[in-house]
Design a protein that fits this description.
Blueprint (H helix, E strand, L loop, with lengths): L1 E10 L2 E7 L3 E6 L6 H13 L22 E9 L2 E9 L7 E6 L7 E2 L1 H12 L3 H5 L3 E2 L6 H4 L2 H12 L1 H29 L2 H99 L1 H46 L5 H56 L16 H87 L7 H28 L2 H32 L3 H99 L6 E4 L5 E4 L4 E3 L5 H22 L6 E6 L7 H13 L4 E8 L10 E7 L5 E5 L1
Parallel strand pairs: 3-13, 3-14, 8-12, 12-13
Antiparallel strand pairs: 1-2, 1-4, 4-5, 5-6, 6-7, 9-10, 10-11, 14-15
Helix pairs in contact: 6-13, 7-11, 7-12, 7-13, 8-10, 8-11, 9-10, 13-14
Length: 800
């Protein structure tokens, strides 16, 4: 696999990032916490999804990004000369992740959805995420992941990486197929014993079929006779049913006509009652006609007094408003006089507020600069303290062993160099002690500057708050003055307007007592007027009611004649209900007999069919057992073939396991010999792939050596495994190796030699990516990617 392009959107510290990866040795540099490891974690996240995240998948979104902004990782890579592209995206913070994989540059994705894409990537790379990180993709602080694993887990991981696990799976499949075939053969041998019994059963079933067929023919004849009897009874019942429907129809028609006749008589009686009531209403209307005529004159007098009342009330209201407007004009004049002498000061307050804000921003910027300086000083102090503690432990160990002890680095006997080594280590410790003291003093100085910067920032904050309060009070004073002036202008205008309206309004001749008397009389006469109008409308209905009564009497006579005619037709039909009931009972009895005969016939035919099916099944069993007798010989030959194939796979797997370990030892030994300048010429692996080193005087376990040498040996083993994986791919698939912070425990000489050795490995690995915080690496590798942080504390990447 070769990395080609990586695109990030709102992934961890990266708002946006677009990178094209070259081939060869690549260095990714930057200070700790800048986002170097995040870039390579994004590659693993694109390939393996949530399994590759240090947090849950929802935690990879950049802090502070918009709620609906997309978090997106897109990776393009080359696999055995074929371009591939994988995209993972989540639109909002609560949205599920989407994933797509394109294979070979096709327009349609080869896999969609996180689970399917995870499975497709594992199938194409032939590695799950654990194997990926333990071979060619070394995450930060995980160089020793293989050597620290349990023996069985380590053996399985290495065999899976180099392809031995595929042979094991093939052996397991062959063994499973052999077991299945042996069980199948054993069952076939047992089944063939039933052949004579099944042949005899076939003869018995043929005899039963002959008896069942005879019974079925008899049942069919009885069913046909019952069907003829049912047909005759049904025909008789149909004639009587037609008469029954005609009789029911005439009965309904008579009932409907009789109901309409009763309704017509009731309607005629109602109309006669309404005509009698209209005579009384006509007399009442004549008695009230005189009072109704006086309503018009009284209503006109009331309307005139209503208009006079309105003008009178308007004049009273204007006089009240005029008095209130005079009071308001006087009040606003007094307010303007009291506010006229107050100072404004708005511009001076704004200038003081601007100066205080500038001081506040400058103090904040100084504090941020000092915080970054303090973090760097503390990191230097921590490194010096850790080095001094390691040196203290080494001095204590040498003193405890005495002159007969061994060197903690080379493990040779100290002898006459005991005092010299102690003196050398003491000088180094004094130098580190001075470095720690200098670092402590620097940290204290920066902390004091930070305290002063905080006091300065607090003073600036108070100045900003005081200036803002002064600006607010000045603006409030100006606003009150403008409001008072505006109210005074409005009050004087209102006073002039009300004076003009009051002068234009004439005197009104208005009597409230007479107005109330006219209103009461108008209300009483209006009720009389409405009642007379209603009575006249009721009396006007009299001619229509008389015409409706005449039509109702004529309809009553017609309905009586229709009811008599319907009754005569029903008697002429001559329907006999008792004969109809008897015919219905006879038809039902014939139907039940026909159903019973049909059921019996069906049961007989079904029994015959079941026997025929049973015979067919028995004959099929006989034929199958005959064929099984032929197949037994073929299966016995296949069992012998599967046993031989299993034995061959076992031999091939053992031979391959014997070849892989020496190849890993050879590559790791070569690299370690180059890096240590021949001090450790050979790496030795046991059956569990535990590491031992040959220092020229013997082979010793890895735990016997120092931490830096242990890390170096683990790194060489990791690279050697990656070499074997690439070589076992047949040279068709160029590889990539990623090493994260592997130089920390090595001195400058070993780092230089390790870089030279890695450069020679470009014949096997077309991409070797080194992640480190050591800035001097950019002079030793052809491609350097620098990771920095912008003012918004977002990570940015750029090629140097």
């Amino acid at each position: 696999m070769i990395l080609r392009r990586l695109s990030l959107r709102n992934f961890r510290k990266y708002r946006s990032c677009e990178l094209e990866f070259p081939q060869g040795l690549i260095g990714v540099v930057g200070r700790n916490g800048m986002g170097k490891t995040t870039l390579l974690e994004a590659v693993a996240f694109a390939l393996y999804g949530a399994n590759a995240s240090r947090t849950r998948a929802k935690g990879v979104r950049r802090d502070g990004c918009e709620a609906d902004a997309a978090c997106e990782v897109e990776l393009e890579f080359e696999l055995e000369g074929r371009p591939c592209r994988v995209l993972r995206r989540a639109r909002g913070s609560g949205e599920m992740w989407q994933a797509e994989l394109w294979d070979g540059g096709g327009a349609d994705p080869a896999a969609t959805g996180p689970r399917d894409v995870d499975a497709a990537v594992q199938q194409r790379l032939a590695m799950d995420y654990t194997t990926f990180t333990r071979s060619v993709f070394s995450k930060q602080k995980e160089v020793a992941a293989l050597s620290d694993a349990q023996p069985e887990e380590r053996r399985a991981a290495i065999r899976r990486m180099v392809g031995i696990e595929t042979i094991s799976k093939a052996r397991a499949l062959a063994a499973g197929e052999l077991r299945d075939k042996e069980k199948e053969l054993e069952g076939a041998r047992r089944n063939i014993e039933a052949l004579p019994e099944r042949a005899a059963e076939a003869e018995r079933v043929r005899a039963e079929i002959r008896l069942a067929a005879s019974a079925a023919r008899k049942a069919v004849g009885e069913a046909r006779a019952a069907a003829r009897r049912l047909k005759a009874a049904t025909s008789t019942l149909a004639v009587l049913e037609r008469k029954q429907r005609a009789d029911a129809d005439l009965d309904k028609r008579f009932s409907r006509t009789d109901a309409e006749l009763v309704a017509a008589r009731n309607n005629a009686e109602r109309l006669e009652g309404e005509l009698a009531a209209l005579g009384t209403k006509k007399a009442e209307s004549a008695a009230l006609a005189g009072e109704a005529k006086a309503f018009g004159a009284v209503r006109k007098e009331k309307e005139r007094l209503d208009r006079a009342s309105g003008r009178h009330e308007e004049r009273v209201a204007l006089e009240r408003d005029l008095e209130r407007a005079k009071r308001q004009a006087d009040e606003t004049a007094r307010q303007c006089e009291s506010l006229a002498g107050a100072p404004g000061g708005t511009r001076q307050a704004a200038r003081r507020q601007k100066a205080a804000g500038a001081e506040q921003r400058a103090a904040a910027e100084d504090a941020r600069r000092l915080h970054r300086t303090l973090a760097d000083a503390r990191e230097r102090r921590g490194s010096a303290v850790s080095a001094r503690e390691r040196l203290d432990r080494a001095i204590a160990d040498i003193r405890a062993q005495g002159a007969s002890g061994t060197c903690p680095t080379c493990h040779r006997e100290l002898g006459g160099t005991y005092e010299e080594i102690l003196e050398h280590l003491a000088r180094e410790r004094n130098g580190l002690h001075e470095a720690c003291s200098t670092a402590d003093a620097e940290v204290g100085r920066i902390e004091e500057l930070l305290r002063r910067a905080a006091e300065r920032s607090a003073r600036a904050d108070r100045s900003v708050a005081d200036a803002a309060e002064e600006v607010r009070r000045a603006a409030e004073q100006t606003s009150r003055m403008a409001g008072a002036r505006e109210k005074g202008t409005a009050a004087r205008g209102e006073l002039r307007r009300l004076g003009k309206r009051l002068a234009a309004l004439r005197r009104v001749d208005y009597d409230a007592v007479r107005h109330e008397t006219a209103r009461r009389e108008s209300e009483r006469l209006e009720k009389v007027h409405r009642k007379v109008e209603l009575l006249r409308k009721e009396v006007a209905r009299e001619p229509g009611l008389r015409r409706e009564l005449h039509a109702c009497r004529k309809k009553e006579e017609a309905l009586a004649r229709a009811a008599a005619a319907t009754e005569r037709r029903r008697r002429a039909l001559g329907f006999d209900r008792e004969a109809f009931q008897a015919a219905r009972a006879a038809a039902e009895q014939a139907r039940l007999a026909d159903k019973s005969a049909a059921l019996e016939s069906g049961r007989a035919e079904a029994a015959t069919a079941r026997l025929r099916e049973r015979l067919a099944q028995v004959l099929d069993d006989v034929e199958r057992l005959e064929m099984l007798r032929v197949r037994i010989a073929e299966d016995e030959e296949q069992v012998r073939y599967l046993r031989r194939a299993g034995a061959l796979l076992d031999g091939f797997r053992g031979e391959l396991i014997g070849r892989v370990r020496p190849q890993i030892e050879e590559h790791a030994s070569y690299l370690l010999d180059q890096v240590t300048a021949g001090r450790y010429p050979r790496v030795v692996l046991d059956d569990d792939y535990n590491i031992a080193l040959d220092d020229g005087e013997g082979v010793f376990p890895l735990k016997r050596f120092s931490g830096g040498e242990e890390d170096l040996a683990n790194l060489c083993l990791r690279i050697a495994i990656a070499q074997v994986v690439a070589q076992r791919a047949g040279g068709q698939s160029p590889s990539v190796v990623v090493l994260d912070e592997v130089f920390a425990a090595q001195d400058s000489d070993r780092r230089e030699k390790l870089l030279q050795a890695l450069g020679r490995l470009q014949e096997i690995f077309r991409q070797i990516i080194l992640i480190t915080h050591m800035e001097d690496i950019h002079d030793r590798v052809p491609h350097v990617l620098r990771i920095t942080e912008n003012a918004a504390r977002e990570a940015e990447a750029a090629w140097m």
